[in-house]
Give the backbone structure.
Amino acid sequence: MKRILIIDDAATVRMYHREILEAAGYATQEAVNGLEALEKTLVQPFDLYLVDVNMPKLDGYGFLRELRRQNLPQAPAIMVSTEADEQDRKRAYAAGANLYLVKPVRPEQLLAPIDLLLGGPQP
């Protein structure tokens, strides 16, 4: 089963994304900030990262930059943020994001690129 790490400091956002992804057949884990996400990734890498921008301790940009520096299997990362400026989008791609979505995202907006990047939720 494909594993996705949901990284967001808002519990309601994590729950919303988790419900969508698990209903579609993906396994999920959660982290409340980039630092916790890095710790989980170093223990066991994930197939995809769903990353918020604004978080305490280590924001989404910092998490992606550090993740991309690690000597471990690299996986796609989708940044999901309320920040809608073109500059934010460019900054996300420069940090290592594969896609940038603006919150709120509808379930189909979230699942379509994930299914494309991962080839669907395989057992």
Q: What stands out?
A: The helical segments are 11-23, 34-43, 60-69, 86-95, 107-118. The mean pLDDT is 95. The radius of gyration is 13 Å.
